[in-house]
Structure formats: structure tokens, C-alpha cells
Amino acid sequence: MGVLPVPAEVRAILLDIEGTTTPIAFVQETLFPYIKDNVKEYLRAHWEEEECQRDVGLLRKQAQEDSSLDGAVPIPLESGSGEEELERVIQAVVDNVHWQMSMDRKTTALKQLQGHMWRAAYATGLVKGEIFEDVVPAIRKWREAGMKVYIYSSGSIEAQKLLFGYSTEGDILELFDGHFDTKIGPKVESESYRRIAASIGCATNNILFLTDIPREASAAEEADTHVAVVIRPGNAGLTDDEKSYYSLISSFTELFLPSST
Length: 261
Hints:
By secondary structure, the chain is α/β, with parallel strands linked by helices. The protein has 9 helices and 8 strands.
């Protein structure tokens, strides 16, 4: 794919995670299965804790909002005490989480619980965040050239920090100037990129967004943000139109910064 010159007005690089810094396989074959396999055990172990109850409360609220959707799983309130009642509610939460994940939902409620579960897995060494080998050296170069680097992912900020804090490259959180998740807005809506620019304190055209998803690239472009689509092993294929329309890179090393001459 060669070299992609970064426009001179770009001051910040905004990075997606899944399929951009990190193999999709890691998310699909390690992180998500961990949730599905361990959510019931996690809820049983942490049910009485305030954090867990907040997570369940958010999931219950989301379930109410989803009640009109096909296959949606309600989460009842505990109507009494006793093991049987507790198991009934926990099973409803488990079923709801499994349903949301099967629908590839990106709700804040789901992401929050997942983030808390992954925190425990990372901290105990059960999971390490996988990073493509070109990522860290490239970001170090960008930063040396005076570029700011931010993350924007549908995964919660907490989950992002866990992935990069407990990564195969060690703790690399120092490489990022900030993190954004869907609390700032969905990645397929152009307004989200305007909010990010305002939060960073720059214009939208001072940002280059790297993602593997054309719909996200299109939304960013609508906001006058520069974009490049990242081609990685395991990523979804692009149409011929998308290939000809978007700037494409297969490695972060293909970005050429004006100040790196």
C-alpha cells in the first residue's frame, strides 16, 4: 500500500482498537468468550458488591428500553430472599448479557460489566491485550514528531486502559493522550467526532482517524476529519468502491508525517 502522507494540518491521531491496533481475533476469540464463559460465576462472586449492583441496575434499565426488541431478555427485580430467587435473577442477567452479545450490541450497560470482568482477568494474568507489532514503534515516532495520540473505541474507557495497561508489549498507557468511548457518541455519527475535537481543543480537520470500518470513516469524514482505513489480517473485506475511495494502510509505519522529513 506504500506511504500515506499525513496532511500538514493534522495535530492528533485518533485510533480505533479492534482491527486497527489489535487483531479482531483477540476480541472475538479471547475477550468475548471470556465474558460468556464466566459471567455467571462472576455475578455469583460479586453480587453483594456495590459496583456489581450498579452494573446490574444499568443492565436492567437497558433491558426495559429494549423490551420491544425481538428476543429481548428482561431482568426482574429480586422479589424476596433465598438462593432460588437469587439464581433466577442472576440467570436473567446472564441470559440478557448473552443476548446482547449475540446481537453485537454496544450498549454502555453491557460494556461496563464487560470492563469490570476483564479488569479481574487482566489483573490476574488470565488475559493479555494483543497489539500488532507495528503499533508501539509507530506511535513513539508520532509522539516524537509532536503528534497527540488518542483512542476512540466502542469498548469502555476502562476496558481500553486494561488492554493497553496489560498488553503483550507491557504497560503502554503512557503513549496515549486520552481515551474516548461511546459515552461521547456512537462511532457511526459525525457529531461524535465534533465532540472529540472540542474535547481535545482542536478543529476536526486537525485530526486523522484510523479505523477498519468504512461506516465509521464516513461519519468522521462528514465532520471534516481526515480518515484512513486500516487493512489487517482477519478484518472484514472492503468493496471495490471503498478501496478506491478511502486512503488505505496495512501498517502504522505507512503513515508519513510532514515533520518526519
